[in-house]
Design brief:
The chain is an alpha/beta fold. It is built from ten helices and eight strands. The protein has a single domain, classed as Histone deacetylase domain (Arginase, Chain A, 3-Layer(aba) Sandwich). It has an eight-stranded parallel sheet, with helices on both faces. The radius of gyration is 17 Å and the shape is globular. The protein starts with a strand and ends with a helix.
């Protein structure tokens, strides 16, 4: 089996102007991947289909869907000061969420060992009832819920290594013991959530694990914390699906973060996640692009991640 790459040029139609989250991000990724002919010969390319209303409503309110549809139809240029939209953004966000579903289908049906969806807009700040932080719909959450509904997945693990805490993902699953949310992130930093004491509520106590990291934490210390957390999770919550909220703004030099990971660190983290998935989830990993805003490095960092997935 191979790695499935999931992409649609329609993602470029989420127009954001002079904003860190802009179409040039995906153009840089596509350029870097296509320049590696050996890698591209080993992967499968898939086009996503849009998430259905049913898919989205497993994670988000009808009110949020109606709000985003209305804003885009009326040509309103933003949801909030951080989150820019354009007339096609609502449909593009549905297609981004659909890429997560396409990836889940592919790994559960056995067509691919794992999948990487390079999409925009990103998703992990979007909560059940609110779009924020560049994010409209939470693709990782929608993918996890779809895997439960369609394939009976009992334990989904979402690993978020974006420099920002995925408050939306945490919020959606905070009282749900069937989905484990694990995040490493810079702290204190936007959006202000992700303290160690946030561990889940009710029956889900212990199924949220946050590792807040000070700015400029060394890559070695970051990696050690990540590795040790995976060991704890594997014992406590052996998953049957792993979804990565793959934010590459935790790389050294990103303009929106102050963490110190290098491309090789992402490759090793990817392999560690794959090892966990091999032992508990028949290797099923679906990785979904979140942040990453240094256009000089993003393409190569993502290529390194895909190389590791396909190894």
């Amino acid at each position: 089996m191979t790695t499935a790459l999931i992409y649609d040029p329609a993602y470029l139609r989420h127009e954001t102007g002079h904003h860190p989250e802009n179409p040039q991000r995906l153009k840089a990724i596509v350029s870097a991947l296509e320049a590696d002919e050996s890698l591209m010969a080993r992967v499968e390319r898939l086009a996503p289909t849009s998430a259905s209303d049913e898919d989205i409503l497993r994670c988000h309110s009808a009110r949020l869907m109606d709000q985003l549809r209305s804003l885009c139809e009326r040509g309103v240029p933003f949801v909030d000061l951080d989150t820019v939209i354009s007339p096609e953004s609502y449909q593009v966000a549905r297609l981004a969420a659909g890429a997560a579903i396409t990836g889940v289908d592919r790994v559960f049906k056995g067509g691919a060992a794992n999948a990487f969806a390079f999409v925009r807009p990103p998703g992990h700040h979007a909560s059940a009832d609110r779009a924020m932080g560049f994010c409209l719909f939470n693709s990782a959450a929608i993918g996890a819920r779809y895997a439960q509904a369609r394939y009976g997945a009992e334990r989904a693990l979402i690993i978020d290594w974006d420099v920002h805490h995925g408050n939306g993902t945490q919020d959606i699953f905070y009282e749900d013991p069937s989905v484990f949310y694990f995040s490493t992130h810079q702290f204190p930093y936007y959006p202000g959530t992700g303290a160690k004491g946030e561990t889940g509520d009710g029956e889900a106590e212990g199924t949220t694990l946050n590792i807040p990291l000070p700015a400029r934490t060394s890559a070695a210390s970051h990696r050690e914390a990540f590795r040790e957390a995976l060991k704890v999770i594997e014992k406590r919550f052996p998953p049957d699906l792993v979804i990565i909220s793959a934010g590459f703004d935790s790389r050294r030099g990103d303009p929106l973060g102050n963490l110190m990971l290098e491309d090789g660190d992402f490759a090793e983290m990817t392999k560690e996640v794959m090892g966990l998935a091999e032992r508990t989830a028949s290797g099923r990993v679906v990785s979904i692009l979140e942040g990453g805003y240094n256009l000089d490095t993003l393409g190569e960092t993502v290529r390194t991640h895909v190389e590791a997935l396909s190894s």
